[in-house]
């Protein structure tokens, strides 16, 4: 039994590919891009950074969210920027302000974190500074910090091992 149309299919395939590349609006540059999420537009990037920060600080679960912030040691005047855990920041605020862990104090600490302009915090209490890892603030959590600085969330689950992010297709270091 003889096949018909085989030659036609084989000869038109390269032609169809060539036409697609040459057609207006079909070049690789015209393909839809990955959503920006504010990673390249300064105003949007700051909005996204605030959104990530608010989500992390407001999550009352046992997950470990990572945040980017700027911290000043009021005793020495040294300022560092980097990443720490949202729980670490909240604990630092508890220590700095001498607040307890009752419902009202928990809400107050969250409010302080969420309303501090520019995510710039200043602490005098050495225990508060230690709680956020001030000495290593610029170098701790490099993988998580890279994600946050690119406009993505970074969180570790309850066990603290697996890194979760909203970046599509992301594979954590060491996988």
| Count of distinct strands | 5
Low-confidence stretches: 1-40
Shape: globular
- Mean pLDDT figure: 80
Strand content: 5-15%
Contiguous helical run count: 6
SS-derived structural category: alpha+beta
The main pleated sheet reads as: 5 strands, mixed
Sketch the topology as an H/E string, one letter per element: HHEEHHEHHEE
State the helicity in percent bands: 40-55%
Radius of gyration, whole Å: 24 Å
Distance between the ends: 52 Å
Write the layout of secondary structure elements.
Blueprint: H1 6-22, H2 42-58, E1 64-73, E2 79-85, H3 86-97, H4 103-115, E3 120-123, H5 126-131, H6 142-149, E4 155-156, E5 163-164
Parallel strand pairs: 1-3
Antiparallel strand pairs: 1-2, 1-4, 4-5
Helix pairs in contact: 3-4
Please characterize this protein's 3D structure.
This protein has helices spanning 6-22, 42-58, 86-97, 103-115, 126-131, 142-149, and strands at residues 64-73, 79-85, 120-123, 155-156, 163-164. By secondary structure, the chain is of the alpha+beta class. The chain has a domain at 42-156. Strands 1, 2, 3, 4 and 5 form a 5-stranded mixed sheet that branches. Helix 3 packs across helix 4. Mean pLDDT is 80; it is low at 1-40.
């Amino acid at each position: 039994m003889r096949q018909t149309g085989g030659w036609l299919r084989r000869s038109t395939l390269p032609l169809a590919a060539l036409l697609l590349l040459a057609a207006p609006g079909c070049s690789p540059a015209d393909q839809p891009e990955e959503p920006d999420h504010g990673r390249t537009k300064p105003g949007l990037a700051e909005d996204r950074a605030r959104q990530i920060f608010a989500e992390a600080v407001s999550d009352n679960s046992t997950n470990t969210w990572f945040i980017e912030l700027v911290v000043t040691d009021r005793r020495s005047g040294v300022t560092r920027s980097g990443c720490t855990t949202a729980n670490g920041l909240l604990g630092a605020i508890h220590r700095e302000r001498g607040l307890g862990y009752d419902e009202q104090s928990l809400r107050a600490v969250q409010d302080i974190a969420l309303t501090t302009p520019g995510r710039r915090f200043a602490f005098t209490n050495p225990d508060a500074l230690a709680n956020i890892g001030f000495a290593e603030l610029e170098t701790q959590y490099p993988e998580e910090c890279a994600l946050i600085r690119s406009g993505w969330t970074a969180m570790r689950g309850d066990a603290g091992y697996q890194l979760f992010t909203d970046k599509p297709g992301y594979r954590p270091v060491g996988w």
